[in-house]
Amino acid sequence: MRSKINKVKSLVLKKFTVFKRYQVISFVSGFSLLAYELAGSRILAPVVGSSTYVWTSIIGVIIAALSIGYFIGGWLADKRKNNLDIMVLLVGSAIGILSTLVLSDFMLVFTDNLTFDVRLKSFMIALVLFAPTSILLGALSPYLAKMHTKDLEHTGKSIATLSALNSIGGITGTFLVGFVFFGYVGLRETLLFLTGLLLFCSLLLLPKDIRKSQIKSVAIILVVGFVSLFIRYTSPVVANIDTPTSSYLVRDITYNKQPVRVLTMGPGGYQSGVFTNGNKDLVFDYTKAIAQGVALHGNPKDILVLGGGVFTLPEYLANKYPNTKIDVVEIDDKLKIIAEKYFSYSNPDNVVIYTEDARTYMNKNEKDYDVIIIDAFSDTSMPFSLTTSEFTEKVASSLKPKGVTLSNIIAANNDQCKQLLGSVYGSYTRFMKGTIFATKHPSLSERQNLIAAFSKSNDEFLSRFGNSSIDNFDAVKLTDNFAPIERLHQQCPG
Fold first, then answer.
1. CA 226, 227, 228, 231: dihedral to nearest 10 degrees?
2. Are 459 and 433 in contact (CB under 8 A)?
3. CB 372 within 8 A of CB 406
């Protein structure tokens, strides 16, 4: 029996030629690179958010590092031709990803208190965490091409094969990590998987005489990685949760001298919160202001909430207006599970949750509402698609004759923020009349949650809700074609 097993093993190894091993390594390196790039956005989100600026820093740093790696790998391939070099690059890449896993929390805590511009901060973090590994992964490609080329006559086919497999690996990594890993495994486990995958590939080209010692080294590295899953440098959290659409932290804090559990998805503030003593009242001033706006409307029969969070506001409104139907649109289907597990959410009978992008829902909506509440954020930044004239026109057309819209806008009417406020406010007032209620400072001079109310014809409601006017002189006309929300937010520090 053992002899048959050895024969099968020998046949498999014979068929699995060294050139095919190069192809496997090329596939895995492409897989690891794109998966690593996706993971980068999740790593930076708690400190610098997930805006276009963050993605720009990550992609820019990785591409620059790859360019350096290509040069180094090409130079090294011309000087040497040794499978051990490929092994070293693979192990180095694995250790680089493991270092990202181990050091990311420490790096983020260190940079969290820095007052740098978010663009500079995200660039610095990306440079330290992602550049070294990307250089090593980049160096693999030209070295593999040199080793995989049998003769000059077949150079084009040889390089094309490796390039195609590298790209296929990248595509596979992108879809598998984005659609599966972040939804069912998590960020840190994903990085550990990539570490193990690269270490496994490093064993493919090893001579038999040193394979056992290398396996021991691989095991040690993986143990370090596994232990690092349980080591955190950040402040204590109840849960760190990755989903296909975002990364969340659940924290227990003291807010206004009361124990509160909050959900965060970036450095800018709290997305949702509940009292941990069982009190079902609303925690934050801006949600209270929205609830007051709903009460001013009178007795709404149909309410639409765009942006659910952990559904504290929909639950509050559902209990206060038991005969009102409340539709909630939330893009992340995992938030309902998070709300039930960590925030004691119980879905009322008159609340219907639609798992969909808010803009997509509005594009096809044919129902009219008494109140439309817009409270969708990525950290403290509004998705650009929910600020444009095309969106607000659809919102206006979805209101009943006396219907009102209540929109949460984080901004101020000062020199730094007035362009942001005026631009978003102006998108609504192209189709409706408006007013603003300040949750903290009536002068609007300080950055805060501003609840803007709009209606086509309910002047009485607007006059009772607020009396602040906005100067739209410097406003940008926000459209689906041009909506520089990141730039406007960057001008409005908070």
1. 140
2. yes
3. yes
Alpha carbon distance 194, 197 (integer Å) = 5
Give the whole-angstrom CA distance, residue 226 versus residue 298: 56
State how far the Cα of 37 lies from the Cα of 100, in Å rounded to an integer: 12
Residue for token pair 């086509």:
456
Task: At 161, list the tokens.
Answer: 């094969």
Edge to edge, the sheet with strand 351-355 lists 351-355, 325-330, 302-306, 369-374, 399-411, 448-455, 433-438
Q: How many CB atoms lie within 10 A of CB 44?
A: 30
Taking the CA atoms of residue 200, residue 202, residue 203 and residue 208 in that order, the dihedral angle to the nearest 10 degrees is -170
Q: Nearest to residue 34, comparing CAs of 60, 62, 65? A: 62
Q: How many other CB atoms sit within 10 Å of the CB of residue 16?
A: 12
Cβ–Cβ < 8 Å for 334, 183: yes
List beta partners, residue 436.
452, 468
- Report whether 419 contacts 491 (CB < 8 A): yes
How many whole angstroms separate alpha carbon 134 and alpha carbon 132?
5
CB 269 within 8 A of CB 309: no
- The domains found in the chain, sorted by start residue, are 2-228 (1.20.1250.20), 259-490 (3.40.50.150)
User: Do residues 406 and 371 make contact, with C-beta atoms less than 8 angstroms apart?
Assistant: yes
**Other Cβ atoms within 10 Å of 241 Cβ, number:** 21
Supply the Cα-derived Rg of the chain in whole angstroms: 27
Closest alpha carbon to 424 in 378, 458, 470? 470
Tens digits of residue pLDDT in 237-255: 788 787 777 778 898 989 8
**197 alpha carbon, distance to own chain's centre:** 24
Q: What angle separates helix 285-297 from helix 312-320, to the nearest 10 degrees? A: 30
Q: Render pLDDT for 50-85 as a digit per residue (tens, 0 to 9).
A: 667 778 888 999 999 999 999 999 999 988 888 889
- For the chain, give the number of residues: 494
pTM of the shown model: 0.77
